[in-house]
Specification:
The protein is of the alpha+beta class and about 170 residues long. The protein is built from four helices and seven strands.
């Protein structure tokens, strides 16, 4: 069953699913080679730098044509075009994300690519406060095309969305 994400749900879904980090978090699984961890951290940074700055060309290039985006509150978005359009309509200039330091986990997926897990906080840059207003967890499957050495997200799960308590600086 396909349910379109409403504008509000798309904002919430994309707010916490993607983030930018100036330096990659320092966590990795024991089974993840350092080079794979660095590669996924760099891919994540490129994707979310594009997401936060509304560089939709770069964003779209890093998503698979048939990407599936699942959100615990808003449903599902299917395809690169729909996902990119949701970012354009609902995110550009209204919301930014940041990685929660130390939350990045990367796991190799033999003959596929890598699984990325983490937590992100989101901000509303036009609001008076620069303090994060919410947080959510995500899981992304990065598929590696060995022929072109390209990495693209194919599945995204965004979940455990919640407002941050006042004790966290709000």
């Amino acid at each position: 069953m396909r349910r379109p994400i409403t504008a509000v749900a798309a904002v919430l879904a994309l707010c916490t699913a993607f983030a930018s980090a100036d330096t990659p978090p320092k966590t990795r699984s024991a089974s993840t080679p350092d080079d794979l961890f660095r590669t996924i951290a760099a891919q994540d940074k490129a994707l979310f730098d594009a997401y936060n700055t509304c560089d939709l060309e770069t964003f779209a290039r890093l998503a698979d044509e048939h990407v599936e985006f699942f959100h615990d509150k808003g449903g599902i978005t299917l395809g690169r075009e729909a996902l990119t359009d949701s970012v354009r309509k609902n995110i550009c200039g209204t919301t930014t994300r940041e990685f929660v330091a130390g939350s990045l986990e990367v796991y190799p997926m033999d003959d596929i690519g890598a699984l990325e897990i983490g937590t992100r906080r989101f901000h509303h840059p036009k609001a008076e406060s620069t303090v994060p207003v919410g947080e959510g967890k995500f899981v992304m499957l990065w598929q590696h095309d060995k022929a072109t050495d390209a990495w693209r997200i194919t599945r995204v799960f965004s979940f455990d969305h919640h407002a941050l308590p006042m004790s966290e600086g709000r």
